[in-house]
Amino acid sequence: MPRFITRQEKHPELFAQDLHTDPRGRKRKVPMEVLCLGYMRTGTASMQTAFNLLGIPCCHSFSLYNHVQDCAMWISAFDAKFTGKGRPFTRTEWDQLLAEYGAVTDVPALAFSEDLISAYPEAKVVLLERDVEKWYKSFDDAVVKVMWTKWGHLIASLDPWFVGPIRDVHLRWAKDWMGVNSGEEMRLKAKEKYREHYELMRRTVPRERLLEYKLGSGWEPLCDFLGKEVPDVEFPKVNETASMHEKMSIIAGRGIRNLLTRVLLWAGPLIVAVLLVAAMYR
Predict the structure, then answer these.
(1) pLDDT value for 161
(2) pTM for the structure as a whole
(3) What is the dihedral of CA 62, 63, 69, 73, to 10 degrees?
(4) Which residues face 34 on adjacent strands?
(5) Which pLDDT belongs to residue 16?
(6) CB of 258 within 8 A of CB of 162?
(7) I want to staple 105 with a disulfide (CB 3.0 to 4.6 A). Which of 36, 96, 179, 276 is the partner?
C-alpha cells in the first residue's frame, strides 16, 4: 500500500523555517537562468517543481510563506513601478530580493515581467499559455474566490505577522498590475488582461530567447532550451486548484494560531495577576 503523504510533505514551503533575513542585505547566490512568465494558473506550480528538479531554485508566490520579511521589499517594488514612490528597481535590487533564486514564475514576479527581462538579459524566457476559457475557470475557482473572501481579509487583518503581509502583496498585484479592486472587477477584466500579457511578452522577448512551452510535452523541449540533462523522473504535474485550496486551509489555520498565541502572550500575565490578587483577598 502506498505511504500516506502528509501535508508537510506536499507543501514544504508552508512549514520551512523563515530565517527573517532582511532582503536588502543579500547578495546573489545563484545566476538568474530562466524567467517563466506565463500567467498564474497556467501550470506555474508544476514549473516551479520542474525547475527545482533541474537544480534551478524557483521563486513562486508560494515562496512568500517562508520569506515573509521579503513582503515589504515587494511592496516597495510595487510603489516604485506603479505609484512613482521611490526609485524603480534595477538589477541591484532584484539581486537582493531574488538572491537565492535562479528562476521566477507566478506573482508577484509576474507583475514585473518587463523589468526582469531587462534586468537579466542573459536569462531565457519560458511562456506557458492555456485556452483562455479553461484558464478563466481555473483562475476564478482558485484565485478570485479565495482572494476576496471576507474571512480571509479578517484573518489577515488580525494576523499582521504572517497572513497580513502576504495578503498585502497579493492585493498590490491585483490593484496595481491588473487594475482591479474587487472580485467582481477581477472577473470582468481577467480575460482582457490575460490576452494583453501574452501579446506584450511576444512583442518584448526576442524569438531566440523565448520558449513557448506546452504542459504535457515532457522534459525534452524544456531541457534542450535550457541546456540541462533530462532528469530520470516524470515531469511534475501539480493539481493547482486542489493544492491551492489545501494551502489556504493551512495558512488560515496558521493565522488563527498566530493570533491566539499573541492573545495568550498579552492576556496570560494579566490573568495570572488577577488570580494572584483574588487569592490575596480571599
Answers:
(1) 87
(2) 0.83
(3) -90
(4) 103, 124
(5) 61
(6) yes
(7) 36
C-alpha cell at 66: 517562508
Q: What is the DSSP string of 3-56?
A: PPPPHHHH-GGGTSPP----GGG----S---EEE-PPTTSSHHHHHHHHHHTT-
pLDDT tens digits for range 176-201: 999 999 999 999 999 999 999 999 99
Lowest pLDDT segment from 97-101, 235-239, 257-261: 257-261
List, edge to edge, every strand of the sheet that includes 103-105.
58-59, 103-105, 34-36, 124-128, 210-213
Contact 233, 148 (CB under 8 A): no
How far is residue 261's CA from residue 138's CA, in Å, rounded to a whole number? 35
112-to-108, 118, 119 alpha-carbon distances in Å: 8, 10, 10
Give percent of the chain with pLDDT exceeding 90: 67
Exposure string (b/e) for 207-231, b if CB count within 10 Å is 16 or more?
eeebbbbebeeebeebeebbebeee
Give the N- to C-terminal CA distance of the chain in Å, as an integer. Answer: 62
Q: Residues 265-272: contacts with CB within 8 Å, 24+ apart?
A: none
User: Which of 147, 154, 229, 157 shows the shortest CA–CA distance to 181?
Assistant: 147
**How far is it, in rounded angstroms, from Cα 245 to Cα 239?**
10
What are the angstrom distances between the C-alpha of 55 and each of 29, 45, 138, 224, 247?
A: 13, 16, 29, 15, 24
Query: Percentages helix, strand, coil for the chain, rounded to the nearest 5?
Result: 60, 5, 30
Res. 272 pLDDT band, cuts 50 70 90: very low
